[in-house]
Amino acid sequence: MANDRPIVIYPPGEDGGRRVRDGPRFLGMAYGLLDVVEFLRLEGLESVDHDWLRRSARIEWRGGGPDVWRGHG
User: Is 80 exceeded by the pLDDT of residue 73?
Assistant: First the structure.
């Protein structure tokens, strides 16, 4: 996992899931912070936790921050 590119967490879909990407690489569908933590640990970022996700400049939250997991409609 490159250290300079953002990890993008997209807006929630109708089911509340959010796509997680590291550049062009799709890491998975997250349904909460624990899913994002696990995807990033599998990619080699072993020190990731909920607090890191909330404060890291590498995370680009789209369509709401770390507490938004439900669809809007």
Answer: no
Q: How many CB atoms neighbour CB 27 within 10 A?
A: 20
Residue type, 72: H
Are 41 and 48 in contact by the 8 Å Cβ rule? The answer is: yes
pTM of the prediction? 0.87
Residue 39 CB neighbour total at 10 angstroms: 21
Q: Which residues contact 2 (CB under 8 A, 6 or more apart)?
A: 22, 23
- Please provide the DSSP assignment of 29-69 as one string: EESSHHHHHHHHHHTT-TT--HHHHHH-TTEEE-SS-TT--
- pLDDT for 20 equals 98
